[in-house]
Structures are given as structure tokens and as C-alpha cells.
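Notes to self, Mannosyltransferase:
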Amino acid sequence: MANKALNFLSVYGYDLIWGSIAAFYVFTVPYTKVEESFNVQAIHDILFHRHHLDNYDHLEFPGVVPRTFIGALLVSILVSPIVLLMSFLHLPKIYGLIAARLALGCIILFTLRSFRMQVRDKFGHHVEAFFVILTSLQFHTLFYCTRTLPNILAMGAVNLAYGYWLKGRFQAALNCLIFATIIFRCDILLLLCPLGLELLLTKSISLWEAFKGCLRTALLCIGLTILVDSIMWKRTLWPEFEVLWFNSVLNRSSEWGTHSFHWYFTSALPRSLLAGYPLFVLGVLLDRRVLFYVLPVFSFVLLYSKLPHKELRFIISSVPIFNFSAAVAASRIYNNRRKRLWKFLYFTMLGLFLISLGSTTISFMASYENYPSGYALKYLHRIGCLTNSTDEYWVHIDPFSAMNGISRFCEKDSPWRYSKEEGIHLEEFRWRNFTYLINEHSNIDGFKCLFLVNGFSRAGVRLHLPFIEMSYEPKVYVHGNTNIEGIMHRNWPGCLLSFYSQ
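result:
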């Protein structure tokens, strides 16, 4: 029995480490934000509305650009037996969201495992171990691997491409990137092109054979997404083509903010890689084989820097390769740690690991408090039921709240009813028949502020323990209709102090 346990840990130990950290993030921060909303709502609707497309959220709130249902369908298929059991046991729908996020995390971590195995086979066990350590000490990869962003769905296919790339199956790697580009994120084209060019220049692939293979894969993927998404959206479309047109041809992505050209290299990558950032540069210098793998991914980030609108999630697919390069450097430092110069590098590396752990802890603390409306609705469900009332409770959720923690998974059955109607002016609410409002405004005529929820504001440094100070401020207010007697006769926490204590 002991030998079986040891064998199991030797094979799956690293996966258990990653899975445990990712699951911890899911259970402690279950709510989602606007960037995840399409796939979250799509998974909810597939699981609970099934073939009744008219009830799907995306037809009422389509978003700026359409997205594919293929990722949501895959996750929904995996999690549907669990949701069926939950429905039989009458469990809240929020557990369905947790199950869906865990299923997605399993998919992404499985693809990351396939890449890690190739790292081990090609560069050794020490490099694999440091690859696991670096990824575990970073926040973003394991926090976001369970979040239903299109970037994360694409990352699964990109991870598989990295594994095939290291294995020498170059056509399979290109096929995975084509799948990610056409189905999930058209911007993966910026990774596909440098990688394909490098393979051609190094004569790793034949131009004609690669062209035939890529064309065949592209046509199959285009056919798949048009077939599935035209049914779900009730019109003929290829979602990622419309995204490409919106971002590249119309160049409207800048409407959501812009950053300087160097932002990915001076802000996004240092925050996502932490200790891995200086180490990945060192890895390229210490092992000439690494440059072959880093160069196309570095070019991907460089090309993406031309787009004015920048977010860390846009380049999160580059993190595994940079971590691989950093792991090569860390392994070399560890193996030579007894030599004089290398000993200094070794202790510096350990210091960087500690800094990474501290930074990840701070990032988690900030993220824990970054979904205020999810907590607001949770507490409203807990304390908002009125005694001796048979009426329905109509809750209006404003756009800010819908973007900061609330999804269909957070809703409950009768007597609770919900509205996300947009464009209602504050003075109009007094004439509407809402029981409660979850809103970013502290004062609304005709409503009493029942309680508020704080959210993360900023982190600061101070000269005494604890050296990091987390600041919070009111983000979401829950109001009750003053015309409802049951609300006015109850004692509420009020809005002088946050009901949810951080």
C-alpha cells in the first residue's frame, strides 16, 4: 500500500500541488467578473435552460462582440452529471459555478501537465521541479486557470501546442494554435505566425506539407464554429472573425483604455512572472536550446504590444514558456550552488522566491475583496426575506454590480426575481416596483440604504509591521423600497459601516 501511494505521488504529486492551489482559489473566490461573464452565463444556460434558446442570457445581453459557445459546451458536458445531482438535492446554483470552474481548471491543468512532461523528458527532473515551483509561487496562472475567459480556453490549446513543440511534433503544434486562433482567440495568430516562420526557417517543417495540414485544420475549425455558434446565436456568424474585425480593422479596442508600448514588459510580465522574470532572461543566456522556444513567444508579446488596449490576460498564454526558461536557469543555479559565484545567485534566487510568495499572497488578498456585488447578493439572500410576506422579491442589479461578482449562478428560485434592465435613471427607481436594488450609488430616492459592501481599493507600503497595508472602500450598496412596510419595520445594518467585514 505504501509503495502504491509513493508511486501515485511520484506520478501525480505535482498535479496535486497545482490542483490544490487552483481549487483553493475557486472555493475562496467563487464569483466572477465581466470578462468571464459570457462563458459563465453560457454554461449556466446550457445546464439549466438546455434547448430553450429563447431563455439564454446572451440574446438579451449580447455584449460588444459575440463569443463562441464551444468552450462553454465542453465544460457543461463535463459538469452536467454533477449539476443534475445538485438539482436532485436542491442545492444552490452557486455550487454549479464552483463545479464548472473546477472542471475548467482540470482541463487547463491537464494541458499544462502535458507541457510539463515534455519539459521533464527534454530538460530533466530538476527543470520540471522548478517549473512547478515557479508556477505555484505565481498568482495569475493558477488563479485564472479556473476562470472562463476566452484567453484561458485558448491557453488550453496553446499549452498542448507547447508540449507538441518540445516533442518535435511541429504540425500538431501548429494545428493546436490554429484551433485556438479560429475558435477562442483570434490574437493567437500573433503566436502562430512567429512559430510557423521559425519552423520554416530552421527547416523543421516543409512549406507545402505545413500549408496542406494547416489549411485542412483551419477549414474544419471554421466549419465547427460556424455550425455551433450560428445555432446558438440564431444568425450565421464566425465569432472570432467579428472580434478580429472589431479589434484590428475598426481598431475599437482602445475604447476600453490604452497603455504604452512597453507596458507588457514593464508591468504585466513582471507581475505575472515575479521571480521568473529575471530568471527567464538568464535561462536564455545559460542554455542556447531555450532561445528556440522563447523567441516566437517573445515575438508574440512584442507584436501584441502594438495594440493600444492592453491587459495581462491577453498574453497569459506566454507565461508557461517564460516559466520553462526560468526553470532552466533555476536548475542550473541549483546544481552549481556550491561554487562561489553561483552561491550568491542561489541565495538571490531564494530571496526572489520569498518575494514571489509575498506578492502572490497580496494579490490573493486583493482578489478576495474584488467581487463586492457577489457578496452583496449573498447577504441579501440571507437577511432579505420578509416575514408574513407572500410577494415576490424583485432585485434590480445595476451594470456595475453585474460586472463585479454577480452571475446567473448567484440567483435563487422563487420568491426571488431579478432584473438587469439597463438605462434606468436614478430618479426613475422610485416609480418602479423593485423590492431591492444592488447599486453603486449610496442614495436613491424612494429607497433606504440597508447595507453596503466594501471592496479592494489599493495596497500601500508602510514602515512598520505589517509592511503592506490593504485599503478598502464602499463599492456596492443594497437598498430597500421604502413603500414596503416589512422593509421599513426591520433593523438593518445600515450604510455607516460595511455589513461585510474584511
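- The chain has two domains: 1-369, 372-489.
- The chain has a mean pLDDT of 91.
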